[in-house]
Design goal:
The structure is a homotetramer. The first copy, chain A, is built from eleven helices and no strands. The first copy, chain A, is an all-alpha fold. Chain A starts with a helix and ends with a helix. The model of chain A has no long low-confidence stretch (mean pLDDT 90). Chains in contact: A-B, C-D. Chains A and B meet through helix 6, helix 9, helix 10 and helix 11 of A and helix 6, helix 9, helix 10 and helix 11 of B. Chain B binds a DNA duplex through helix 1, helix 2 and helix 3.
Chain lengths: 191, 191, 191, 191
DNA sequence: CATGAATGAGAATTCATTCAT
DNA sequence: CATGAATGAATTCTCATTCAT
């Protein structure tokens, strides 16, 4: 019973992810979502109050999943570079293994799909990384610049890989991931 | 007559830019574009075959403007770093001075607003930068990695600044621009 | 058990009255009725065959209550004017004391909310008043006109007071009730 | 051109009148209105901003028509009784000759179909009658009671006739109209 | 009897596009 | 070329009713 409940909810989230990441928010009618989730159109509204709520919920869910993956194995006592490296590879691993999710997040980042309040809420999940950067700055390992800049050079580029990969123009090999991390690290470190 | 022609066409492009960058592609009805351009709805179809064509045209136009700005003062004989620096600051200067255009481009980058073919077409405008990178690689100044990686770390982060700025969370000072360039350069250089 | 039965039925009727008199028939979803009655949506259909039946039943119930109140203390042997006066004040007393019921009846009177057959059925409850009028006509105290006219001037105006009161434009004082009765009586009497 | 404009607008108003007076506001979908007006569904929104606006407009239009009819031939210098009589017969004449309009008004009177603001607006059309009553009170011909009471006994009963007639239970003959006026006059006069 | 999730037939409204003037 | 009313398909969302548990 509870399972069935959860089942339909996640079927809906999953269908939404599929469709939005492939065709974009506004080219994804509720009817299609319902169909793909094998559910009646009206049923959606038993789980989400409207389309915005559905997408917001999906965003929060994925952001949560992503952040969990990102901090897998991370401990606060780690040396800064080791921590940054772990998180960075966790992130790219998640994005490479979950292209739909990655694409969805990427779409949300640069658009007004997701409610402002929800996006803000999701931002707080990154706090451990911000803390780590701050420690790195204290240890003079990481450049003493705004976290926005650090984010722009250490995290944001990942979105580009995914967006490009979507269009089959590019495949990110293991070796390239290594290079990519080195570039990210060079950008943000003082050394 | 030709002038009037051009006038209406650019009025339409300008109106589209205004509305799309503020409200997104799908929240911008043709009727509003027409109104803002002070033109009848039907008239749009004398200049563009449909909404997609209108947006594609706008994208090409802006991308062209942006690339022109980016290569302002650039000459092929320049030393690599000097060239990269010039282009980078040109780019950020354009984006800071033209927030609507920057926002529009940013929206197009990670979505399916613009036709795939058109986006590809626009990519070729960057050829001089790709050439410069290639020269930099030959001179062993720039990392020997895929241009996608170079792009991801040297150009793509600019979009983040704009997207964030749009939401009033952040203002990019002159000093930060300096830091930012240093980070970009550190990412892509071998030194 | 029977009590519980009756309990739920009247809880449903009461909830319907509340909601319909406040928001109108078509702005009152079954789900809300169920919620207010503290009952599951499906349960309604154990007591009423559909929404129409529910509202029809409510109408009959209230009309019954209203008529009972109207004839409270009335005896067939009463002098005509006394009888008319008693009934008239009973009616207005009921409507003033039960604004929700009054409003509901008023809404039903001029619309297609209630089935035609049910409305006809309810009309018969007024028979004693019709008889009284007839006696009054025999005694040449009451105008020799169609009972429809008598109704229009002696009973129908009450609905107006309620409808107006609903909109807070008007409060019917004791003195006004007196005047109002005098007006009603003047309309229908021969004297 | 202008005619066509007006034509469609009035065709829509007329269709709305037909359908709402027959089936009620909430049983009258926009699609049916469009069909009856021989117009596409979307066209409605070129003339009215939404369903509420359409009905409000219709109400104002009819109320206007009704009031014009009511004051036909009326002059402020008329003796009070003559004036009241003229207006009263004008009103009933209008309602008898225009049953759909009468029914529509009657439905609006006791429900929340029409916006409160619009109803208030329409009320002002009756001002000449209120003025006449006031004069009658000054001359001590008309009872010194709230205009609400006067309205309830002199105007409101007309709605009942129409509502009843709608259900084919009753036909209002010329003679009955005479009686009816006498009743109304008896109700409101001091004599 | 009671539940409440599921259904799916509409309902109001929007909007890109056409075409007669 | 310019106009803008007209179109009608598509979209989001509601709600009376059913039925498996």
């Amino acid at each position: 019973m509870t399972d069935k409940n959860t089942d339909k909810r996640s079927a809906l989230l999953s269908a939404t992810l599929d469709l939005v990441s492939n065709h974009g928010f506004h080219n994804t009618p509720m009817a299609k979502i319902a169909k793909l989730a094998d559910v009646s159109a009206g049923t959606i509204y038993n789980y989400f109050s409207n389309k915005q709520d559905l997408v917001d919920s999906l965003y929060l869910h994925i952001k949560d999943e992503f952040t969990n993956a990102a901090f897998q194995g991370y401990e606060e006592e780690m040396p800064v570079k080791e921590g940054v490296k772990l998180i960075w590879f966790n992130m790219i691993e998640y994005k490479v293994s979950n292209p739909k999710q990655a694409n969805f997040l990427s779409q949300c980042e640069n658009s007004q799909i997701v409610s402002a309040s929800v996006r803000e809420q999701a931002l707080q999940h990154l706090q451990p990384l911000l803390d780590l950067w701050e420690r790195g700055q204290a240890e003079e390992i990481i450049r003493d610049v705004s976290p926005y800049l650090l984010y722009a050079y250490a995290v944001y580029p990942l979105s580009f890989f995914v967006a490009v990969k979507k269009r089959d123009e590019f495949h990110l090999t293991q070796e390239m991931q290594q290079h990519s991390f080195e570039m990210a690290w060079s950008a943000i470190t003082t050394k």
